[in-house]
Specification:
386 residues, alpha/beta, Spore Coat Polysaccharide Biosynthesis Protein SpsA, Chain A, globular
Length: 386
């Protein structure tokens, strides 16, 4: 029990520390706006069975008022319907079809990059999007300004496209809390921001070189992040460049998605634990060490549920009541600090009632992580998956 309390205390302290850091302000460098017009982007969108959403996503990108003449949208079509591909091509989208026995995001991206190289295509930077993403007006200009100012790797601010069900709203809360703690809080302290997997902007050759050695089944973005941090490159966080991302609408999809995430997190934790200490002690690589420590942290829903259960346990058995109460207060404080005010205003009974369901689903996800290590677990998008 003592070990459990120490572990949970560390997790709460970590979350609270960076939640507080997210409220501080870090002075940003002056951006060189005159370089913006010279930057051209390749918008890369892997689409695995995403016929319901991919056309609207592509339309959204090319319809942006600041979409450049030299910019290009590439959709990687993995098992898309012929009709979908035709609709994309009518929009002037470059479609690269890929075929795999076992599909992964890393495989699809690498195959597309090879095709672009053969065609002689090259851009200044890659903007990696999910098939359900939507750019918010002004995104392109802000990112091009940041890239033109010398930021080679940028994570933009992903926010919820939908909060139409209690589970989707809970997922939106989770996204923004993670943005505050693992991106803004870290950025404000001079550390690298965490990658998400979409809304990522990276120098073209840099992206190509890193992806060539990335062949993981799940969590390609975490492997990419570790490779970047091992080379001591900084990941900038652009808080005011927004991208909309569809949130999961039901508990089953939530469970599938979290199974994939947890499996990847635990794998990277085990594989890099010793290496993290070597990087810290021999090379002073705090970013890499910190990233691996993050892999050992429990998901926030699991942390909340565990502390709630311990609270009941402490009341029944009169065990360390004050200590456990302080941990609950500390976590609650951290979550409130990390949640934007516009979301806090939407907090209601329905959302709170969803927490036990999410805790149960997360617990089931832990028990099913073996499946995620063997095959890619796809998270479907679109209104029909309510």
């Amino acid at each position: 029990m003592t070990f459990i309390l120490i572990y949970l205390s560390f997790a709460v302290a970590y979350v609270l520390f960076f939640a507080i850091a997210s409220k501080t302000k870090r002075k940003r460098p002056v951006l060189l706006q005159n370089k913006t017009q010279k930057v051209n982007f390749l918008y890369m969108i892997p689409a695995y069975k995403e016929d319901e959403v991919i056309v609207e996503t592509a339309k959204n990108v090319v319809s942006q008022s600041d979409f450049g003449k030299e910019d290009e949208v590439v959709v990687i079509a993995d098992q898309l319907k012929k009709e979908t591909i035709q609709n994309l091509e009518k929009l002037g989208i470059t479609v690269i079809e890929v075929f795999f026995d076992k599909s992964t995001k890393a495989k699809a991206i690498n195959r597309a990059m090879k095709a672009l190289s053969l065609w002689g295509r090259k851009h200044d930077a890659v903007v990696l999007l999910d098939a359900d993403n939507q750019l918010v007006e002004g995104f392109i200009t802000k990112v091009k300004e940041s890239f033109g100012a010398g930021n080679r790797i940028i994570q933009t601010h992903r926010i919820a496209k939908n909060i139409d069900t209690p589970m989707a709203k809970l997922d939106a809360f989770s996204e923004e809390i993670n943005n505050s703690i693992f991106r803004l809080g870290h950025h404000n302290l001079g550390l690298s921001a965490a990658l998400i997997g979409s809304g990522l902007v990276m120098e073209y050759d840099l992206f190509k070189n890193y992806l060539q050695k990335n062949d993981v089944v799940s969590g390609f973005d975490k492997q990419l992040e570790l490779d970047i941090m091992q080379d001591k490159l900084k990941i900038e966080y652009l808080e005011d460049a927004y991208i909309l991302d569809e949130k999961v609408r039901n508990a089953q999809v939530f469970e599938t998605q979290r199974t994939r995430w947890i499996a990847a997190q635990l794998n990277f934790a085990k594989q890099n634990f010793v290496k993290a200490w070597v990087q810290l002690i021999r090379h002073g690589n705090l970013d890499f060490f910190n990233k691996v420590i993050q892999f050992f942290l429990p998901p926030r829903v699991i942390l909340m549920g565990s502390l709630a259960i311990l609270m009941v346990f402490s009341l029944v058995f009169n065990y360390k009541f004050i200590e456990i109460l302080l941990l609950n207060v500390g976590l609650l404080t951290a979550l409130v600090l990390a949640t934007p005010s516009f979301l806090l205003k939407t907090l209601n009974r329905n959302l709170l009632a969803e927490l036990p369901i999410a805790f149960f689903r997360m617990t089931k996800a832990f028990l099913k992580i073996g499946n995620a290590n063997k095959q890619f677990l796809h998270t479907p998008h679109g209104a029909t998956h309510n």
